[in-house]
Design a protein that fits this description.
- The complex is a heterotrimer of chains A (52), B (218) and C (244).
- With 52 residues, chain A is mainly α.
- Chain A has one helix and no strands.
- With 218 residues, chain B is mostly helical.
- Chain B has one domain.
- In chain B, helix 6 crosses helix 9, helix 7 runs antiparallel to helix 8 and helix 8 runs antiparallel to helix 9.
- Chain B is elongated.
- The chains are: A mainly alpha (52), B mainly alpha (218), C mainly alpha (244).
């Protein structure tokens, strides 16, 4: 299954690795922030409703 | 307009105005370079155009935050913004004052510092010419950066981050002219390009800077 | 025309992105992975570059996104300055980190490719240098957003910076071109120059590109939604502070 990358295996893996780490980090951060802000906004809307 | 210019000049020349600071910085920077790269005169003369240009650019940056910050703090910027003078004109005058107090001394000092770096004899003319053409652009671009960060408490570092990338074209063409001049090549193309950038910056950036000040004062 | 601007109304935007975002995300994930898996496992090696040709399925799309993200920010900033659409400027803010990461990926993957091919990680080549400068612009833009507290002031000032920055980014591109003739080959993936690249490399690269574009879109939509919510949260909290 694994293609033979020859002597450049390290370089190719490094490039793909960095890409996945960076993009993964960006996606994770975006999702975490989205979830946190959503929760805080919901809490704030609740407060607003109960306090009138 | 002339009054505004005179006011800024007098303020800058008075004690504590920071006049000469940039010049001192320029001198120290150029003195430090040989300590860093070694006293070999050939190597120094090879990097002299770049060092002088980068030094001038950093020295210019040093005093940028003074353009608007002091007036913003004591409230005179609000007064000036409501004065019957177009804000764009005010910005242009302030940038001009900055150039006279910072850029012009640098142009005068640069050849002397060029001696320290063994700058090639043929390059002196071009060094002065490019600095004369280029430093106004540095002041006007800097005025834009100062205008954007004027309302911020710790704007100085941020301003450097914003302004330095904008200096890249001026730096490239300026240093390129001096380098080509030193080697006796044709300098016309980069010189014209640099002139174009300066003219464009002087003509257009006051509008952007004035817009930024209006936003900050809102 | 009114209908077009309707989509940018914050409430409407939240409604349609709520439905569209999952679909776009799925397509993005599928195409992204398909393109890269196709490129990684099922393409032959180039006769000159060997296996390093596989890096291009990352490098080229990320570089294209990096540039076009700034272009999108410029347009969004203009729309904000002219038509005062809050969603527009928030989308610009949301796109900046994505563009920055793409620039970083393009630089990193290019450096890794450059080591075995050019014998160096870094060369002061026009294209490489321009990307470094583009990265600096992203950093400055984001730093300015972080530094200003009032959201509308921040939106205005960053938009002005984006405009001026764009002009200087183009200037820098030409200046850098003039300053050093480069090692970098010309655009390797444009539609009119398709004959430059053999089909075996081109199709997976196109799929990967589509994946990157959709990924960018999904991330920007997600982040824009977050920014809209953050803005509303900020408004509610300000009101609470005033009241009590």
């Amino acid at each position: 299954m694994m293609p033979d990358l020859g002597k450049y295996a390290g370089d190719v893996f490094a490039a793909y690795g960095i890409t996945f780490v960076l993009l993964g980090g960006l996606i994770a951060l975006s999702l975490i922030r989205a979830a946190r802000i959503k929760k805080r906004l919901q809490a704030a809307e609740e407060r607003r409703k109960t306090n009138g | 307009m002339i009054r505004l210019l005179m006011r800024d000049l007098i303020l800058a020349l008075r004690a504590g105005g920071g006049f000469g600071l940039g010049l001192g910085f320029f001198l120290i920077l150029v003195t430090l370079v040989p300590f860093g790269v070694g006293p070999d005169s050939e190597r120094l003369s090879a990097i002299a155009p770049g060092v002088l240009w980068v030094g001038a650019l950093l020295a210019c940056l040093l005093s940028l935050d003074r353009i608007f910050a002091l007036d913003y703090e004591d409230g005179s910027l609000d007064l000036l913004a409501t004065a019957p003078v177009p804000l764009e004109g005010l910005v242009a005058m302030k940038a001009l004052a900055h150039w006279i107090t910072t850029g012009l001394p640098l142009v005068v000092a640069a050849p002397m510092l060029g001696v320290l770096l063994h700058l090639d004899g043929a390059a002196y003319t071009w060094l002065i010419v490019t600095l004369l053409i280029g430093t106004p652009a540095l002041s006007f671009i800097g005025a834009f950066g100062a205008a954007i960060t004027v309302g911020l408490k710790r704007g100085g570092l941020l301003m450097s981050l914003l302004v330095l990338p904008l200096y890249i074209p001026t730096l490239i063409f300026g240093a390129e002219v001096v380098r080509r001049g030193a080697q006796g090549f044709d300098v016309m193309t980069p010189l014209l390009m640099q002139g174009g950038i300066s003219a464009g910056a002087i003509a257009l950036l006051p509008f952007a800077a004035a817009a930024a000040i209006r936003i900050s004062l809102r | 025309m009114a209908s077009l601007w309707e989509w940018a109304n914050p409430r409407k935007f939240m409604t349609w992105t709520d439905k569209a975002l999952p679909v776009i995300s799925i397509f993005a994930a599928v195409l992204f992975l398909a393109g890269l898996i196709w490129g990684f496992f099922f393409t032959p090696d180039d006769y000159r570059q060997g296996a390093t040709v596989k890096i291009f399925y990352i490098h080229v799309p990320s570089a294209m996104i990096a540039i076009n993200a700034w272009l999108m920010m410029l347009i969004a900033s203009l729309i904000w300055l002219i038509r005062r659409h809050h969603v527009s400027v928030l989308a610009a803010k949301a796109a900046a980190p994505v563009g920055m990461v793409m620039t970083l990926i393009a630089l990193a993957s290019g450096a890794i490719w450059g080591k075995p091919m050019w014998g160096t990680y870094w060369e002061w080549d026009p294209r490489l240098t321009s990307f470094l400068i583009l990265f600096l612009f992203y950093v400055g833009y984001l730093a300015l957003w972080e530094a200003i507290e009032d959201p509308d002031t921040a939106a205005d000032l960053t938009s002005v910076l984006c405009l001026v920055g764009s002009v200087f980014a183009v200037l820098s591109r030409y200046a850098v071109n003039f300053w050093n003739q480069g090692l970098h080959q010309g655009a390797s993936l444009s539609l009119d120059k398709a004959e430059n690249v053999a089909d075996v490399f081109w199709y997976p690269a196109l799929v990967a590109l589509a994946g990157f574009v959709l990924l960018f879109l999904a991330l920007v939509l997600l982040r824009t939604r977050t920014e809209i919510r953050a803005r509303r949260l900020h408004a509610i909290e300000m009101r609470e502070r005033v009241q009590g």
